[in-house]
Amino acid sequence: MELLTPEFGLVFWMFVAFACLYFILAKWAWPFIIKSMEERADLIDKGVAYAQEAKSHLDNAKAEADKLLAEARNEQADILREAAKMRNELIEKARGDAAEEAKKVSQAAQVSLEQARKEAEKQLRTQVGDLALQIAEKVIRKNIANDNAQRALVDQYLSEVETKN
After folding, report:
1. What are the residue boundaries of the structural domains of the chain, listed by start?
2. Which of 54, 93, 97, 126 is a plausible cystine mate for 61, CB 3.0–4.6 Å?
C-alpha cells in the first residue's frame, strides 16, 4: 500500500516545484501569450471590419476580404498550435523535474540505508568481539585454576615471545 500513497515530503516538494513553475508561468509566460493573442484577435477584428466595409463599397472586394479572413484564421490556428506546443513542453519539463526530484529522494534513501547497514555491522562486530573476550576470559580462568597450569601457560608465552624476537 506504500507504493500507492506518496510520503508527505514527496508531496510537499512536488507542490513546491509546481508552485514555482506556476509562478514563473504566471509572471512571464502567460502575460506574453495573452497579449499576443489579444493583438492577434484585434488584428483579426480589424481585418473583418475592413472586409465588411469593402463589401459594402465594392462587390469585387469580397474575394480579397475572404482572403484576409482566411489568413487571419490560419494565424489564429498557428497561434493555438504554438500555445498547445508550449503547454506540452511545459508539461514535459514538469514531468522531467518531478522524475529528477524522485530520483534524488531515492538516492538519499539509499545512502541512508547504507549508513544504517554499516552502523549495524559495526555494532554487531563490537558485540561479537565483546562476547569472544568474555568466552576467552572464562576459558583462561578455567585452564589456569591450579599453580602448575599457570606456570606452564607463563612458560609457553615466554617461549613464544623469545621466538618472535
Report:
1. 8-121
2. 54
